[in-house]
Write the structure tokens for this entry.
Amino acid sequence: MAAFTRPDGRQIDQLRPITFEAGIAPHASGSVLVSFGQTKVICAATIDPKTPRWMKSQGVSGGWLSAEYSMLPYSTLERKSRDISRGKIDGRTVEIQRLIGRSLRAVIDLEKLPGKTMWIDCDVIQADGGTRTASITGAYLAARLAVQKLLDEKKLKENPFKDSIAAVSVGIFEETEVLDLPYLEDKDASVDFNVVMTGKGQFVELQGSGEEATFSEEQLANLISLAKKGLKEITALQTNFLSKQLLQTLSL
């Protein structure tokens, strides 16, 4: 039997090259261009000095965080129509932006963001699988940079983030469990999972299903193990990136 080989030559537990570039959207409070291989997403955080009306009407204190997600028309091989041209947001977009919002709210103490709303915008400029996981990973960095700006300007008393957050995909491709699937693997995967986890190793969300297929408890354990390994590496990359950004800020 021939040895299993991934289309891009990676090991089954190897992430795609991951990079972060700060300041990609200078008018945002914090922004990052995140790349997972050929998947590229601009993540920007903007601070609005007010909260949604429903918070006041329901007597909810603190601040709020909300996310929006979009795939730009040229991000895929075939042009993707903008939601506004169709007159409505498609179900996938709604699902992903809710996931991004839930993921970040899991690691932020909104009581420490009083009277403010943090808007997270994730715009996919190039899609090659894993756009939602890249968005979550980059959104945390953009939000953390925005918080640091508020702290530096004395507009926040303390950092509201309790932990970091990152996400990665895992799946079963050609009967083999693999980490961080690009489009070629994702479209033919028999099982597809997205795993969201905090820097301390706590799960926030597991999204997974068989694509007209089933999977065993052993395979599920293998997928989670792969995801945990990948997320530990991604968290280390996030920490290193933020450390460098903070040093640059202090040197200015």
About this structure: The chain has a mean pLDDT of 93. The chain has six helices and nine strands. The first strand starts at residue 18 and ends at 22. Helices lie at 53-57, 83-86, 91-105, 131-152, 183-186, 217-251.
